[in-house]
Design brief:
- The protein contains 4 helices and no strands.
- It is mainly α.
- The chain starts with 6 loop residues before the first helix and ends in an 8-residue tail after the last helix.
């Protein structure tokens, strides 16, 4: 089964396959720069301390257990999805 590509990914493939793409002079330094960026992207994490109602933590732990996840990972995922505009909330 082939993965489904986004429109942007398809455009990149078309661009490369059209032989319009050209190598840059400083290819090695650019590869190193992007490798460092990629490595640091997911590696940096900062501890956060928040206070939540015990009832919410209890329910969150139950849902986490049902899904085989830690409740901390669920919180991390929710924050990530919210900050990247994948989910919204009404306050």
């Amino acid at each position: 089964m082939e993965p489904t590509l986004t429109q942007e990914e398809n455009e990149i493939i078309e661009y490369i396959e059209s032989n319009q793409a050209k190598s840059i002079d400083n290819l090695e330094s650019e590869k190193n720069r992007f490798q460092k960026m990629a490595a640091s992207y997911g590696a940096k994490k900062k501890a956060v301390n928040i206070r939540l109602p015990e009832s919410d933590i209890y329910l969150l732990k139950q849902k986490a257990l049902e899904n085989g996840l830690s409740y901390q990972n669920i919180i991390q995922s929710l924050v990530h999805q919210y900050t990247h505009g994948k989910i919204t909330t009404s306050l």
